[in-house]
């Protein structure tokens, strides 16, 4: 047994009551960032200490805010310049959107509101809007289980990162998660199977068709079309996120119940596995698989479960017993022509992942008695 301390961060968005004072602060902060960009760009400065030392006097003359704003503006300016250089763009970048980042020294979190330091002994209170999802984090924070990190404030949202130190201990067993178009299948070597049928593909197809219809409208009513596109794209995103939250919640609860560590496929290879030519679904694959894995990983870590990634090469095409190439054998089944091993194709992917991690081959009876199908039903997030 070993103990591993890991810090887990999750950025949680909160709405807030608009506030003229805060708007002014955001506008001033944007000016500060552009001022720092200009200064660093002209003198080819890339180090924080040099920029901070160089701008400070002039910054103090122009803005009389707490000195921390100068740190933050310098940091953001350098990050923007670095990104600009990396993308090989000409000239200098410009901050256009209203946003600022505040480290824990510049604000205080009260659960339902945030107090921002503006100048020494001068504060600004922001009242947060939140739902059930955010409330869980606030409650855990009140109980001392979570700490807040550097917050991001923009025109309509405040993103608060909650962090927690978790103990990742050696799990008793591993469970391998195979994510595919119609279901998520989790297999452990002891053997347990959890299969969650999901509608991610249906959701994507439905909204794809809606979007195509709206695009026809764009010729006559471009403004209406634009508004509708935005509306339906938000709806799709919310629906997708909701499904991913539910699936990841089920998987993590199941793993926790049995003390499983979680194995997932390293996603760099996942696109190769999906048949080419399905233009419509490709976005779903790369993007939603990543989202789902991300949700599973952070929920697992919040619950103290370790997560590891394995190379997915051959997981769905090779025999877990002898390594031979599998051939389709009827609906959803794969069979090894060399040794005769046969199993459900989604289970085979998971079994191969377990084998890669050194687990013994699960019993053949895996299909018959331990199949548990859980449909995407009710359930709250996180
Ligand atoms: Zn075989």
Automatic annotation (TrEMBL):
Organism: Korarchaeum cryptofilum (strain OPF8)
Keywords: DNA-binding
PANTHER family given in the database record: TRANSPOSASE (PTHR30405), TRANSPOSASE-RELATED (PTHR30405:SF23)
InterPro entries: Cas12f1-like_TNB (IPR010095), RNA-guided_DNA_endo/Transpos (IPR051399)
Name used for this protein in its record: Transposase, IS605 OrfB family
Annotated signal sequence range: none
UniProt superkingdom: Archaea
GO MF annotations, alphabetized: DNA binding
Residue intervals of the Cas12f1-like TNB domain: 289-353
Coiled-coil stretches noted in the UniProt entry, renumbered to this chain: none
A Pfam family: Cas12f1-like_TNB
């Amino acid at each position: 047994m070993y103990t591993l301390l890991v810090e887990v961060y999750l950025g949680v968005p909160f709405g807030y009551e608009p506030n003229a004072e805060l708007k002014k602060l955001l506008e001033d902060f944007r000016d500060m960032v552009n001022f720092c960009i200009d200064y660093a760009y002209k003198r080819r400065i890339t180090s924080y200490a040099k920029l901070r030392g160089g701008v400070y006097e002039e910054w103090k003359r122009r803005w009389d805010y707490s000195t921390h704003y100068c740190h933050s503006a310098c940091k953001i300016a350098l990050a923007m310049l670095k990104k600009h250089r990396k993308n090989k763009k000409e000239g200098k970048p410009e901050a256009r959107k209203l946003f600022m980042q505040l480290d824990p020294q510049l604000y205080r979190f009260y659960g339902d509101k945030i107090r921002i330091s503006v100048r020494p002994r001068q504060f600004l209170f922001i009242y947060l809007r939140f739902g059930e999802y955010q409330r869980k984090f606030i409650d855990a924070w009140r109980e001392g289980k979570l700490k807040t990190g550097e917050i991001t404030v923009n025109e309509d949202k405040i993103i608060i990162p909650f962090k927690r130190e978790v103990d990742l201990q050696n799990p008793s067993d591993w469970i391998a998660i195979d994510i595919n178009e119609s279901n998520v299948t989790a297999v452990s070597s002891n053997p347990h199977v959890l299969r969650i049928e999901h509608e991610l593909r249906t959701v994507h197809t439905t909204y794809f068709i809606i979007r195509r219809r709206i695009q026809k409208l764009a010729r006559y009513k471009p403004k209406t079309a634009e508004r509708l596109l935005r509306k339906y794209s938000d709806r799709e995103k919310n629906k997708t996120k909701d499904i991913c939250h539910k699936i990841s919640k089920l998987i993590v609860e199941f793993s926790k119940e049995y003390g499983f560590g979680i194995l997932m496929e390293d996603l760099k290879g996942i696109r190769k596995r999906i048949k080419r030519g399905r233009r419509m679904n490709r976005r779903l694959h790369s993007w939603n698989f990543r989202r789902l894995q991300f949700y599973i990983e952070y929920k697992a870590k919040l619950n103290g479960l370790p997560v590891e990634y394995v190379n997915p090469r051959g997981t769905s095409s090779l025999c877990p017993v002898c390594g031979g190439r599998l051939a389709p054998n009827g609906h959803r089944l794969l069979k090894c022509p060399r040794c005769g091993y046969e199993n459900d194709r989604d289970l085979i992917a998971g079994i191969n992942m377990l084998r890669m991690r050194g687990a013994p081959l699960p019993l053949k009876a895996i299909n018959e008695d331990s199949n548990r199908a859980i449909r995407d039903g009710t359930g709250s997030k996180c």
